[in-house]
UniProtKB/TrEMBL annotation:
It is an enzyme of class 1 (oxidoreductase). The gene is msrA. It comes from the Bacteria. It catalyses: [thioredoxin]-disulfide + L-methionine + H2O = L-methionine (S)-S-oxide + [thioredoxin]-dithiol; L-methionyl-[protein] + [thioredoxin]-disulfide + H2O = L-methionyl-(S)-S-oxide-[protein] + [thioredoxin]-dithiol. Has an important function as a repair enzyme for proteins that have been inactivated by oxidation. Catalyzes the reversible oxidation-reduction of methionine sulfoxide in proteins to methionine. Pfam families: PMSR. This is Peptide methionine sulfoxide reductase MsrA. It comes from Vibrio japonicus. NCBIfam families: PRK05528.1.
Length: 161
């Protein structure tokens, strides 16, 4: 298993979408690259993210990035849907330099590469989100109204695993 951290706006929808992608073995809502190791401090520069554990023989890093691009506006800076602010920026983070190299190459190969605002950075810090944010849309589907991902897209892979 390998891990990568994906930020795509509000983590509720990102986690709900990614957990059904074939090859993903687990997800966890969290905060990436902030300055503290707690969720109870003031905003410290983090991005909302989802830790994704995946089976590389079933799902490549490149294909995982394609899935992320299904649910985000890759040109938007610090905004996805109604969520606005630095913590809602899009990004890909990993402790594995090879992941980052492959992601950069994959994005660079796109015709729209010059317009993409997704940051690709080494993971320097990760903090698990509080329990109330874990699997939020599974446990509280009524909260989908806060999510930028349309329902039909959100559950695109649910029955394909």
């Amino acid at each position: 298993m390998e891990q990568i951290y994906l930020a795509g706006g509000c983590l509720w929808g990102v986690q709900e979408f990614l957990k059904y992608v074939p090859g993903v073995t687990s997800t966890e809502a969290g905060r990436v690259n902030g300055a503290t190791n707690t969720t109870s401090s003031d905003y410290d520069g983090y991005a909302e993210c989802v830790r994704v554990e995946f089976e590389p023989s079933q799902l490549t890093v490149e294909r995982l990035i394609d899935h992320l691009f299904e649910i985000i506006d890759p040109y938007s800076v610090n905004k996805q849907g109604n969520d606005v602010g630095e913590k809602y920026r899009t990004g890909v983070y990993s402790r594995n330099p090879e992941h980052l190299k492959r992601v950069r190459k994959h994005i660079a190969a796109r015709e729209d590469a010059d317009n993409i605002a997704v940051e690709v950075l080494p993971l320097t810090n990760y903090v698990k989100s509080d329990d109330e944010h874990q699997d939020r849309l599974t446990l509280h589907p009524e909260d989908h109204s806060f999510c930028h991902i349309p329902l039909d897209l959100l559950y695109k892979y649910k029955n394909k695993r």
